[in-house]
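Minutes, project check-in
Item: structure for the 267-residue chain
Input as provided by the requester:
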Amino acid sequence: MPPISYKSAKDLEKMRAAGRIVSTALAAMRDAVRPGVTTAELDELAHDIVVSRGGHPSFLGYRRDTRVYPASICASVNAEVVHGIPSQERVLQAGDLVKLDIGVRYKGFHADSAITVAVGTVSEEAERLLQVTRDSLWKGIAAIRYRGRLQDISAAVQSHVEAHGFAIVRQMVGHGVGKDLHEEPQIPNYVDNRHPNPRLEEGMTLAIEPMVNAGDYEIEVLPDRWTVVTRDRKLSAHFEHTVAISKRGADVLTLGPHDLGISETRL
């Protein structure tokens, strides 16, 4: 396993600046979501915000094996869990849940965050799934303690999600983030003793991202080789924040106006 990267105070200031761009773009996209808007329009909006502030969209041109991601955001609708490719043909409809995920590189460092947004009025189940997933992210963040264990985060997310009858995606995990978009350690959203369980040390920077399904936890990848969907085609939700570990606990670097009711970045 590659070593965990620990960030200096100067590194963290760059990541915090990247996080401010991320949160600005997410807030603008959230406000633009309505029936009739295409996911390509949301992608263009986010791209313009990022580059106008001196950042680079982390996902644009991202390579995985022989694949190159073609957009600045991931926009995943309803049964799409993550990595949905924006398109002019994907028109949002009332009742949809759209997951908006964006990373930004600024002065050599990345920040990464995601929200799920209801399009108009959604079903009671969709609203409950959205709220439980969002709350599970904050439960995970609140579980962070200096020199605690990584699995403290996993356990907090899992217990909240499963107490409400939903399923945690197990094939995909959160991750370290910094100079690279994806760094060690991996952060499962459930307790899995096969994964390393390092102590949470000052200077670690983590992208915590519960992905929660209304039905079964199983997923599959569509023929575009990017879009991940629930196998049973039931709804999914996704929230994510980039956090830094300090001696005080968790410092949320991507906190934004979409985090209603959260008044402080340090929990």
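Outcome recorded: Residues 171 and 219 are 8 Å apart (CA to CA).
No further action items on this chain.
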